[in-house]
Amino acid sequence: MDNFEADLMELDSYDIQNLHFKVLLYQTGYITFGEELEHNYYKMRFPNKEVELSFNSFLWNNYTENQIIGPKNILLKLKKAFKIRDFDLIKEQLNLLFAVLPYDFMAKEKEVIFHAIIHLTFSLLGEFILSEVHTHKGRCDALVINEDAIFCFEFKLGENATKALMQIHEKGYLDQFVSSTKKLFAIGVNYNKETKEIDGFEWNEIV
């Protein structure tokens, strides 16, 4: 939703037989007006956290083919893993998450869906999640921020975790947080489409 923009006329004038998803979300109350970027052109936002949670839960359950017990257990364990900074547990639970996803979501041409699922999963943890965070040198895949730490993730499909980790450092994705009192962690992850699991998971603390 961070980059979701819409024109007022576009939202108010529509064909019920050919309804655009932006219009549908607006007319059903899932999104509302945020900052006015230009005359009658707005950045859209969720009206409150409850609606955002409901929307993300709906998408997440559909992406994970409604395998309710498994994925929700994964969320609880991921939340614990971030709190105690157990990186082995984070890797383990991400692998379990990927195991319940439809196979074709992991195809290279579906990489946007791969990243969307990661974003949805972290959002449902109740942590503060930013996806595709821009810096002057590029953008990272995701930042997870809890009460005392910031975790910067770079995900690769069919490449390697070392490359992902190096990218975080070379692009300075965490530079804007160096004055923060929170602990800073860089995490590079690679998903192997052949074995259908994470085959590379590397991390270090920024000090």
Question: How are the secondary structure elements laid out?
Answer:
Elements: E1 5-7, H1 8-12, H2 21-27, E2 32-38, E3 41-45, H3 49-63, H4 69-84, H5 87-99, H6 111-123, E4 128-135, E5 138-145, E6 149-157, H7 161-171, E7 183-192, E8 197-206
Task: Characterise the protein shown here.
By secondary structure, the chain is α+β, with helices and mostly antiparallel strands. The protein has two domains: 5-45, no CATH class; 49-206, no CATH class. It is built from seven helices and eight strands. A five-stranded mixed beta sheet has the order 4-5-6-7-8, with helices on both faces. Strands 1-3-2 form a three-stranded antiparallel beta sheet. Helix 4 (69-84) runs antiparallel to helix 5. The chain is globular. It starts with a strand and ends with a strand. The model has no long low-confidence stretch (mean pLDDT 77).
- Which sequence of SSEs, written as H and E, runs from N to C? EHHEEHHHHEEEHEE
Q: Please tally the helical runs, counting DSSP H or I stretches of 4 or more residues.
A: 7
Structurally, how many domains make up the residues? 2
What is the strand content? 25-35%
